[in-house]
């Protein structure tokens, strides 16, 4: 379909005596779609909703296409609460702690939770999403020729979710594998992966200097199932996947999320929105006093009255330690303590 054909078809279906609501999906596939949208919105009584799934639909690019007023927002994969709602339609839902383990393993792409798929079937669906994104939205659009090097950068970032690293770290790693790639190319690949919504960058915030640091950032995936569909499932990666899930939940609830840098350590997340702020520390299990001291002491170094959390998967997690609330990650994800912004 051409833009001219789309305009003619939509115009012919507009209501002659009232507002028409138009929902246009994957609109970026039509060359010149923005002219159609601009014409319809300026010439007729319409309420337009347009959706798309690649970087042409980013707010930074939308502003160059559309005239007048518009609101842009991002849709995430299923939250833990939404995952439970989907699953309840076709299977019995177990207790939240057990289901969290399933959610970590299977992820939250809606298409994978419409019926009782096996793990292999889910990873096949997610791998198809990954392949179409990498090859259609990144390789073809940016005319990348050395696809194997892009994929190595992808696998490095997927394998290092929750770890701070730099473009130089990746370049040095590839050099050790005799795959030379300069820092600027690595930066370019990371930027393209972000714009394709596969990765999200989480910068470090200096809690003492009150500034965003430009080095040693962290990257999180749009969904944890991406990691397992590409690299295979590995129980050793569960801790970082839990961190990824909490990060996405904070983003869903409207927070701007950074890694907090203290004097000699880090707070997993410093999340801020409007006049609110929360500090979150995540540990899969507190097995020793040393682990407990490390997790709580970092939060106790922060002398303000904003809420502070230690999240864990310990079965009997709960309670309050010198003003720091301890919660099971499943309870935190389902809680209304951090309300969604409407």
Major beta sheet, specifics? 8 strands, mixed
Order of adjacent strands in the largest pleated sheet: 4-3-5-6-7-8-10-9
The dominant shape is globular
Separate helix tally: 13
Distance between the termini: 36 Å
Our count of domains comes out at: 2
What low-confidence regions span 5 or more consecutive residues with pLDDT below 50? Answer: none
Count the beta strands. Answer: 10
Characteristics:
alpha/beta, 8-stranded mixed β-sheet, two-stranded parallel ribbon
Can you summarize this structure?
With 342 residues, the chain is an alpha/beta fold. It has 13 helices and 10 strands.
What would you note in describing this structure?
This protein is 43% helix and 19% strand. The mean pLDDT is 87. It folds into 2 domains: 3-65, no CATH class; 80-334, no CATH class. It is globular and about 70 Å long. It has 13 helices and 10 strands. It is α/β, with parallel strands linked by helices and 342 residues long. It has an 8-stranded mixed β-sheet.
Note the topology.
Blueprint (H helix, E strand, L loop, with lengths): L2 H9 L8 E6 L7 H11 L2 E6 L7 H7 L14 H8 L8 H11 L12 H24 L4 H13 L7 H10 L6 H13 L3 E8 L4 E11 L2 H8 L6 H15 L3 E6 L4 E8 L2 E7 L6 H12 L7 E5 L6 E3 L2 E5 H6 L8
Parallel strand pairs: 1-2, 3-5, 7-8, 8-10
Antiparallel strand pairs: 3-4, 5-6, 6-7, 9-10
